[in-house]
């Protein structure tokens, strides 16, 4: 059993995105990773995919998720269940931070763009 | 891609515990389950274990986690990383609901008590 507090977990950044890895192989969890992310107003993830399952749980703010030509509103309580290699993008369309947990069935998780090029991640 | 809202996800109850399964095999997620639970003031989970990894992310309230003779304070931002078959119990010791997400590397997840007897779960 490991106990952590989010305030002591390293913070990484991509433009407009604040990221913390709450759980991963480094903490002895092999089956999945748990990410906590905040997108600043006006910010977006790249359009991306990964070869693993992902569940996104939104906890605050307002945004949209682009997937297969559709736009889905996302706010506190929205849950996305993504199959492997589904291209998607999350955009903060509101005036407040868009906050979410991402759970991914890989550790580590390579992320690629729409053309299959690996997107380097700082975490 | 499936999109859900927590308000439309069935609610199950054990004494003092409100449970929703945000993601599982039923939603096409094979590698893990995501649970959202609220423990009422004074309530506790049973002392229990499961043969899979679990990560607990606390989002509000105040409680303690019993494990291996220790008591660990839990509040918003506390993250527990549990290895398979580690006996543990979560107790709400505060006056507000104790809220958490649990991510478990099994689907479905059999839960057993300290003597190895399966604890029937309504979800």
Q: What would you note in describing this structure?
A:
2 copies of one chain form a homodimer. Chain A has 123 residues and is an all-beta fold. Chain A has one domain: Jelly Rolls (Sandwich), CATH 2.60.120.10. In chain A, 0% of the residues lie in helices and 49% in strands. The first copy, chain A, has no helices and 12 strands. A 6-stranded antiparallel β-sheet of chain A has the order 2-3-4-11-6-9, with no helix packed on it. In chain A, strand 7 and strand 8 form a beta hairpin. Chain A starts with a strand and ends in a 10-residue tail after the last strand. In chain A, 33% of the residues are buried. The model of chain A has no long low-confidence stretch (mean pLDDT 95).
Number of E-type strands of chain A: 12
Helix count from the secondary structure assignment of chain A: 0
The protein's oligomeric status is homodimer
Q: How far apart, in Å, are the first and last alpha carbons of chain A?
A: 23 Å
Named CATH topology of chain A: Jelly Rolls
Which shape of chain A, going by the Cα principal axes?
globular
Proportion in helices of chain A? under 10%
Largest interface: A-B, 39 and 39 residues
CATH architecture assignment name of chain A: Sandwich
Largest beta sheet: strand ordering of chain A: 2-3-4-11-6-9
Residue fraction in strands of chain A = over 45%
**Structural domains of chain A: how many:** 1
Structural class of chain A: mainly beta
Main CATH class of chain A: Mainly Beta
The profile of the biggest β sheet of chain A is: 6 strands, antiparallel
CATH superfamily of chain A: Jelly Rolls
């Amino acid at each position: 059993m490991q106990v952590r507090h989010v305030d002591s977990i390293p913070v990484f950044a991509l433009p407009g995105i604040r990221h913390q890895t709450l759980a991963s192989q480094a903490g002895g969890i092999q089956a999945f990773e748990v990410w906590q992310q905040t997108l600043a107003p006006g910010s977006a993830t790249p359009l991306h995919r990964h070869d693993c399952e992902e569940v996104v749980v939104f906890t605050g703010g307002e945004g949209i998720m682009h997937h297969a030509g559709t736009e889905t509103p996302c706010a506190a309580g929205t849950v996305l269940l993504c199959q492997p290699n589904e291209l998607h993008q999350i955009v903060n369309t509101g005036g407040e931070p868009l906050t979410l947990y991402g759970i991914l069935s890989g550790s580590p998780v390579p992320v690629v763009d729409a053309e299959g090029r690996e997107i380097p991640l700082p975490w």
